[in-house]
Amino acid sequence: MFKLTKRSVEGLGLQEKEYLIWDREISGFGVRVYPSGRKTYLVQYRSSGRTRRRTIGQHGVLTAIEARDEARKLLGEVAKGGDPSEERQSRLKAPTVAALCDRFLCEYVAEHCKPVTARDYKSIVRRCIKPHLGPRKVADITRADIVNFHHTLRETPYQANRSLSVLSKMFNLAEDWGLRSDGTNPARRIKKFREEEKKRYLRDNELIRLGEVLSESLEGGTESVYTVSAIQLLVLTGCRLSEILTLRWDYVTPHHLELPDSKTGKRRVPLPSDAYEILMELPRGENNPYVIQGRCKGRPMINLQKSWSRIREQAGLEDVRIHDLRHTYASAAMRGNVDPFKLKEIMGHRNLQTTLRYAHLDDEDIRQNAEFIASRLAGSIRKNKVTRLPLRIVS
Fold first, then answer.
1. If you write DSSP's letter for every residue of 49-100 in order, what string do you get?
2. Can you tell me whether residue 236 is helix, strand or coil?
3. Please, which pLDDT band fits residue 23 given cuts at 50, 70 and 90?
4. Nearest C-alpha neighbor of 336 from the set 238, 208, 210
5. Is residue 387's pLDDT more than 60?
6. Residue 243: closest CA among 310, 323, 319, 305
7. pTM (2 decimals)?
């Protein structure tokens, strides 16, 4: 044994097998010499009745002085009850964000989320979270990392905010699963980007044009009866697209659609007589339980987007999304003075605030109300016109 210094370590000869040399000043501090000539510093200690070793670093990359200082630090942790070797192994085995994403999708999303929600989560994980944060260790992610991630998606604020929400849920679960300490969710309290409200609904003249295009498409054979009927049902019921595409015949009664599992759980949708007539005129496929049939035998229609793109272009409604038909339904209800609480039940919303957000008021209605208010106020203010006196200049 001798003091490990730069000169003494470099002077160690090579042997057929690796061997250890210990420092005479710091008990447990040593150097391992390999037959290849590589030399690495290490510490050896006992923890929980077991002899453990922790590599410090390679000679040449570290100096003997730097290795000695690190040895003192590690052995100091051992004296306080720590186990540097076990901690390092645990760190190496610690899951990455990519592994957390996989577990999140498998154990949480698959069990607790609706299919549409699960699809959106998978898309966010695949396109946003894994490419940016996937290789990083879950325990190493800081709030600064999440802020930077959120900022990189600033050009798509909606996607950035949804990704932030998914990350927050994932790190909450990471705490529950023991992958992070409690109360360390790095995605909490991060200000989201302002999202531009998508305020679009069909006015009466636009609905007329849409109806004409639907009739022409059906008569001309460019769209199927199922496509046309699906769009008509969306307008007349205010249902979500997924609720119409997955509608089964055994859910249909003369006055209601009895949906066993919607976005907000089981719900009963009022079925107007016009919508019921559309349903009754639809051909039923053999051994197909779905109302809106798809191309595959026994399966529902999967995608309405391509057909909708063609139809809205012909109707001159290029900026109208399918979901705006649901907005139109809610707006018509509000203009018809339907009680918001009743509309909430019809729309299948969990809270009233969501209903009010859907129910956009017609700009012309707003203008007429503003005109009415101003006329009432003007009646008083114009009777007492303020006389403007000439400005007196004092010389």
1. TEEEEEEEEEBTTB-HHHHHHHHHHHHHHHHTT--HHHHHHHHHHSPBHHHH
2. helix
3. very high
4. 238
5. no
6. 323
7. 0.60
User: 330: which 2 tokens?
Assistant: 């809610």
Distance of CA 141 to the CA centre of its chain: 18
At residue 89, does pLDDT exceed 70? no
Which residues, in sequence order, are bridge partners of residue 185? Answer: none
Distances (CA, A) of 104 to 94, 136, 179, 181, 190: 16, 16, 12, 18, 21
Record the tokens describing residue 174, joined without a space. Answer: 């990471």
Contact (Cβ atoms closer than 8 angstroms) between residue 322 and residue 234: yes
Alpha carbon separation from 340 to 49, 99, 307, 348, 354 (Å, rounded): 70, 44, 33, 12, 10
Token pair 């349903």 is found at 279
Predicted pLDDT at 190: 93
Helices (H), the chain: 6-10, 64-79, 84-93, 97-103, 110-112, 115-124, 130-133, 143-152, 157-176, 204-220, 225-237, 241-245, 273-281, 305-314, 324-335, 340-347, 352-358, 363-381
CA angle centred on 37, ends 34 and 38, rounded to 5° = 70
How many alpha carbons fall within 13 Å on the CB side of residue 291? 25
Whether 199 and 165 have beta carbons less than 8 Å apart is answered as no
